[in-house]
Amino acid sequence: MKANNPENLKDLNELQSSLSKLDKRLQHIASEMERTHIAEYVDLLNKPRSLIWRNLLAGTARGVGIAIGFTFFAATILYVLRILGALNLPIIGDYIADIVRIVQIQLEGKTY
Asked: Which residue ranges run through the membrane (predicted)?
């Protein structure tokens, strides 16, 4: 077989085209892996103490955030309930006043 044969040149061109497409695809995959920082993730998985420490800090921060958020939420709800209780609405006003009284007693640390 001669290299100058038109069929061989066509096959060679197709092979080069396929290899070029494969190279572009591999470069794209490599750049995506770099973008996702997968090497750093694998490194973190290989260091269990570091992983535990990071998760401990994240959990603590999440818990403190939830506590602060719930405190603001509960304070807002109590404020609105006090306003509604002060309006002296029939039935609803008594119910809201009971809720506010129970919460205030609990905040003072007394049992009702």
From this structure: 56-81
How far is 45 from 91, CA to CA, in rounded Å? 59
Helices 92-108 and 48-86: crossing angle in degrees, nearest 10, is: 130
pTM of the model: 0.48
| Helix orientation angle between 38-45 and 48-86, rounded to the nearest 10 degrees | 100
Ordered per-residue pLDDT tens for the chain, 112 residues:
455 677 788 888 889 999 999 999 999 998 888 888 877 888 888 999 999 999 999 999 999 999 999 999 999 988 887 887 777 777 777 777 788 888 888 888 765 5
